[in-house]
Structure formats: structure tokens, C-alpha cells
Amino acid sequence: MRRGIITKLTKTFGDAFGSKSSKKKLTVSEQWFKHIIKGDKAALKKQLKNGFHINTKNERGRSALMIATYNRDEQMVAYLIAEKADVNCQDDRMNSPFLYAAAEGYLEMVKLMSPTADVKRVNRYGGIGIIPASEKAYYDTVKWLLEETKSDVNHVNNLGWTALLEAVILGDGSEKYERVIRLLLLHGASKDIADRDGMTAIEHAEKLGYERIVNVLNQ
User: Fold this and answer.
1) pTM reported for the whole predicted model
2) Does residue 155 surpass a pLDDT of 90?
3) In sequence order, which ranges of the chain are alpha helices (DSSP H)?
């Protein structure tokens, strides 16, 4: 009986002094990123109206636009860009919304981001968007970058590779890579640039046995 009374009193005093478990209140930043994931534009708009900075980053250096791009949420990307989100803001992996969208072939996002994109901004490999886009043979994205932006078709990354070299070395020599390589050549890609081992695109194509690519490069 006495033990029961003591237990009851302990609980009463504990509650009075705040030891009762309570749900942790989210910070303003945590609320912001939660709204991004949920796609709650009304809540986002309210926070922006109250002075919240649209390019605020989370613990991984990711802005709201970076997260929306990773999630391939085109509607959220469009909304954030309309609210002047920075398409060049890089995270802890040196990805920016524009660089990542280009690398993944997210053409509609690339189109939305292009007007304010820094096409000279490099990723962690020292490459610009057109290089990984060519590596993965995203023809339409490569075409847009070449025709609608000032992307340097002969930019050389930290590995010593251009978009052309990367398309040959990391491609599979198939028809889709042939199309991208023809496109790069049409827009001035140099066949003479060699990598750090002194090998050109055609030499790599010959070594890999990509006959159709060799034929294109020999034209």
C-alpha cells in the first residue's frame, strides 16, 4: 500500500516538473524540409512569407530544390524555381540541382533550370553536366545542353575526359551511343583530345572493339 502511494506521488511530481514524455517540436528548418517531402506548397509559401530563406540547407548541405531534384518531383522543382531557388547550390557531394538533373537526363527539369544555370560549375569529378549526360547517352538532354546553353563540348574533367571520351570509354558502343557521339561531333567535339594516358576517343573505341563508333570517328 505504502509503495503504491509513493509511486503515485512520484508520478505526480514528475509530471508537474515536466518529466512526462512529450513530442519534440520541430525547428523552423525541420518543418521546411518536412513540407518539401510532403509537397505542401501552402505551408512552404507561408514560411517564405515569414522570411524563411529558400536556399537554406539541411545537415547534408541539401537545399529544398536539391531534395526535390533528387526525388524527381517536377512540380515541386517548378514551384521552387518560380520562387527564385538557386539551381547552382551544391551539396556535400558537390551535386547541384542543375548538375544532377543533367546527369540523370531529367530533361524537363534541365529546361526549367537552364535560364539561371551556371554551365561552368563542376561536379566532384570536375565535370560539367554534359559529360555524365553523354556517358549515359541521354540524347535529348545532351542536345538541349548543346543547343540551348553555352556548355563547353570540349570541357575536360579531372580524369582527363571530355564528353566524347566519356561516351566512348563508359558507353557500350551501341546505337544510342553512336547517336550521341554524332551529335557531339556535330557541335564541335574534338577527336584529337587525348586522356591522361595519351589515348584519344578513336583509340579507345578501337581497343574496346566498338566498330560502329570507330567508323563514326573516322568520318
Assistant:
1) 0.87
2) yes
3) 2-16, 28-38, 41-49, 64-70, 74-82, 97-103, 107-113, 130-135, 139-148, 163-169, 175-186, 201-208, 211-218
